[in-house]
Design a protein that fits this description.
By secondary structure, this protein is of the alpha+beta class. It is built from eleven helices and 18 strands. The strands form five sheets. Strands 3, 4, 7, 13, 14 and 17 form a six-stranded mixed sheet that branches. A six-stranded mixed sheet has the order 8-18-12-9-11-10.
Length: about 400
């Protein structure tokens, strides 16, 4: 059944909803009041989580206001009259001062954050499995590029000297390095949200938290796909798969037994160690399907063969195991996956310092390679433009097991 309302009826209905919500806020909440009891703190902008809610709340306001910063600030003011959130003061100020670039609003509505990139990384990418690997070196690339030295050959040759050392005749060599220029590539991650969610009469943060989770999920997925498997090019970073030396790309044995699985996964680490990689932060990464299969295998006594993979913090041979669905399970003949091993301390991720957020209320965005209309689907698309690049300092510091059919 469809209920039609006149504009006056809709305004009256909205006012009633706001009034009902306000009545629910009269009961004091321990620990939240901060300004003489007249306002509550709400979300805490002094924390990463609170700033994330502020961003999502600002995006919701901008979407409803059709990319009008002044109207969005007024909408937040209306919400604040209900919730009494003192933290909305921060958001209203942000919406009216500099975080919005008016000159670009006509092309879709863009938040420009040249000075807040590190905070946005913390807020938007906590779900990126790749970036969680302990030991990764993160570099800021304010100019968009940076030269680094990758180790391309053997290290220094050493020799013991006698009582009368002939230093000049001692065999010696220098480590050989290859210069590589990290250049940021622009990643566009789009999250589409139904307008019905955005328009709900909820002055609180429930919808904002939902928006934030969707944004975090989609942005992290886009990053992880690139960091693990992209082969590089002018527009995309070369991921871990593209940096690993060919000799350390191992094809899975067709026999799936405890012995062969143990041998293959162990070989992945030993190949790196045999190449004289000093292992500081070795780790594995695999799909959830692979982890589920391995953690369910039992030996002839009914004991789990890889018990250490079953916990909340899985490990194998003492190395942590990171699990992500962004390592595909449909490679090769359509059922194959991959497993990675890498010393994460040899990975460098270079991040640009600019991030833009486009709010598309009326227009098209790409989904699965096809153009999708926000108007036809009654939704708003949020596109995040960020800059990043990746480099593995030593090609032998990683290995990959291919053709994995742990099903």
């Amino acid at each position: 059944m469809v209920i039609k309302m006149t504009e006056d009826q809709l305004k009256a209905h909205t006012a009633k909803a706001v009034e009902d919500f306000a009545k629910k806020q009269t009961a004091p909440v321990a620990g939240l009041f901060n300004i003489g009891g007249s306002k509550v703190k709400g979300y805490d902008v002094d924390t990463v989580e609170g700033r994330g809610i502020a961003i999502a709340r600002g995006l919701r306001a901008m979407a409803i206001a059709k990319n009008d910063p002044s109207a969005a600030a007024n909408l937040v003011k209306d919400w604040q009259s209900v919730t009494k959130f003192s933290s909305d003061d921060f958001l209203r100020e942000t919406l009216t001062k500099g975080a919005i670039s008016p000159s670009t609003l006509a092309t879709g509505g863009i938040f420009n954050t040249p000075n807040l990139y590190n905070e946005f990384v913390e807020i938007l990418y906590p779900k990126s499995v790749f970036r969680q690997m302990a030991g990764i070196q993160f570099e800021s690339l304010p100019s968009g590029s940076m030269k680094i030295n990758r180790e391309a050959g053997s290290g220094i040759t050493t020799a013991w000297l006698g009582d009368a050392p002939a230093v000049a005749t001692t065999n010696a060599s220098e480590p050989t390095f290859q210069s590589y220029t990290m250049t940021v590539k622009t990643l566009a991650a789009t999250a589409a949200i139904q307008n019905a969610e955005l328009r709900r009469q909820d002055a609180g943060t429930n919808i904002d938290q939902k928006i934030l989770k969707i944004i975090q999920r989609d942005a992290a997925n886009a990053l992880d796909v690139a960091y693990f498997r992209y082969l590089g090019g002018s527009n995309a970073p070369k991921g871990l798969r593209g940096w690993i030396a060919p000799a350390q790309q191992i094809a899975m044995n067709g026999t799936k037994s405890i012995d062969t699985i143990t041998a293959e996964l162990t070989k992945m680490a030993s190949d790196c160690e045999s190449a004289n990689v000093i292992m500081n932060n070795g780790c594995y990464a695999m799909s959830s399907r692979s982890r589920s299969y391995l953690s369910s295998i039992r030996n002839s006594y009914g004991v789990y063969a890889f018990e250490e993979l079953r916990g909340a913090n899985p490990t194998f041979n003492g190395y942590p195991v990171y699990v992500t669905n962004n390592i595909p399970n449909n490679l090769g003949g359509g059922t194959e996956s991959e497993i990675y091993f890498v010393d994460a301390s040899k990975i460098v991720i270079g991040d640009g310092v600019d991030m833009q957020i486009k709010i598309i209320t009326e227009g098209n965005y790409l989904r699965g390679g096809s153009q999708v209309s926000t108007s036809v689907n009654d939704e708003t698309a949020f596109t995040f433009l960020s800059e990043t690049d990746l480099c593995l300092l030593y090609s032998q510091a990683g290995s990959v097991l291919t053709g994995v059919t742990y099903i």
